[in-house]
Design goal:
heterodimer; A: alpha/beta; Rossmann fold; 10 strands; globular; B: alpha/beta; 5 helices
Amino acid sequence: MIHSQPAANATRILAGLLEARTGQQIAPSRYWRIQTALAPMLKAQGIPDLDALVAVLSDPDNEKLLQESLDAMLNNESFFFRDTAMFAALRSDAFPVLRERRAQRRTLRVWCAGSSTGQEAYSVAMLFDTERDTWKDWKIEIVGTDISPSVIARAKSGRYSQFEIQRGLSVDYMLRYFTQDGEDWVIDPQLQAMVTFREDNLLKPRGDLGRFDFILCRNVLMYFATETRHIAYSKLERSLEDDGLLMLGAAETVLGHTELFSATREMRGLYCKASASRSGQSIIPPPLS
Amino acid sequence: MKTCLVVDDSKVIRKVARHILETLDFTVSEAADGSEALDQCRQGMPDVVLLDWNMPVMSGMEFLCALRLVDGGAKPKVVFCTTENGRGHIQAAIDAGADEYVMKPFDRETLHSKLQIVGCA
């Protein structure tokens, strides 16, 4: 799409606002997304184009519209069990380690940072429920946070369209954990009760969530600029128990981005605090012979 | 390279599915109904069958039941791919021996994830 100069300026301003408020960057080559993402809102608000939107947003009284604009521009793509191999490894490698380390207190706190519309957090809940006999008498707490109020509301609702429900989710899990309501599929209340969602900014937390045994921050940091990413890694490091585990997206790595975490030798995509790594602690036990 | 037989009476759907599957490194063959698909399977079982429900001559369910009785017919993973989106239909397909279920419309990501689930991608 070819923008006129004023529209090109407007997209730059909107991209700048998005980064300033959320940390999420949009590369200039993907500025076309801004027009696409905001088109429904412009139509609904009767705002003719992006230039006019920028003019409206320059009024500090229009904070609500600014929030709606940011919401629309955020990349909230999510689906169940995204990167199936990593979820398989979570179950086969990470869960046994966490179970062993928390065997005394029998509680486990999991944080999905950047939980979007909830598919990732519910996927983790399904894994725990699949092994419910193993985790019997454990207190499993799964917390999902996201900067966008609208996606948090959707995550809380546990309601997914036909298109969303089958992205990554096996038909077995779909029939087991969801009921059909018209064109939508609604999550089982017991599974829903395992997860709490709250609006929060990874870069400017509203409150203390406490420390977690396992953090998933997947496909979030890849959209951040270098300095913003450092801030986020610091927050994740402070929020992780010293012997906890961090999981990034399949295409993400800490290498070259932070010294606060080290890759585990044993499993791609799983990281521990660098201090734990230096102490020589093996994160993943050797395979059973 | 894995092989996939796309069974659908819609030429457009077959074309779309073929395009997606070829980007996923599948060798694709096509059939316009269950009977034609069964003939192809008798000549050589594919790794996966992407199967429509409503088709002339022989429906998807009739094909599935017949396939599982053919020598070697337990081998292919069968993924229903249909506009029938009711829970009852889905359960019936699974009970009849289908491995996965895709509700139309679908995209590459959905199909890829379903093929991963059945261990073919």
